[in-house]
Amino acid sequence: MSSSPTPEMPPNALRTSQLNQNLTHIHSLLTASTPAHRTTTPLLVAVSKLKPASDILALHSTPHSHLHFGENYLQELLSKAETLPRSIRWHFIGALQTNKCKPLAEGVPNLWCVESVDSVKKARALDRGRAVLWEREEGRRGERLRVCVQVNTSGEEGKSGCAPGEETVGLCRIVRDECPQLELRGLMTIGALARSKEGGDGNEDFLSLKRVRGEVERELGIGEGELALSMGMSGDFEGALREGSDEVRVGTGIFGERPAKGDGEVKGEVEGGKE
User: Fold this and answer.
1) Which residue from 8, 28, 123, 266 has the least number of CB within 10 angstroms?
2) What is the pLDDT of residue 140?
3) CA torsion, points 213, 217, 223, 228, in degrees to nearest 10?
């Protein structure tokens, strides 16, 4: 895979300016919401699903040189990863089907983290896919693939994620002990929409994920606070940061409103102005 960007069109100047202003604003909110006692800066994942490769290239270039981008759909990620520089650190954050895990891990060498692992089958499939990738790329064996175990902190039916407690602990144990190509990075949650809309502090989904992390760390003998918390999106990331989130996932706050899935483009130029 080439490390040189090859989008069909470069980002236009007006759109690039707009994106850089948006990202600067989000960074200022992140800084203001991060507790003063933190010694590390929380990670900002720019959620670029259904946005063109040119948008990503604009933010990956100077002045921001942003590294971390999140995608929800396998085919879209595969296309963008083929098109854009290998220096990008991709996060897969969407609902994950077991049969898509191996192609995902095998097909994106610069996949930095999969954040939606919620079953043993998916973890093992990712592990197998990563092994195939490094067997194919002789002499380029890379670091282990980071994964977050997704926790259904809201208890909503039909929502992806492990139940807090034994199910989450058990999956974390298997990722750590039985998947040599994977690294257990932490836990992720997508909270209840109603709680996110309420805003403010004391979001029960964030508090629940912190409790689950403590349980996992105790059961697995991991140091306190070593597992990362991935929680908070465009509508509630400031509250998540105040509750101790190590990573927030922001899409519309950076890229603007998204088109319907069928209308999204992977490549090409986005005209300036309202999306």
Assistant:
1) 28
2) 64
3) -30
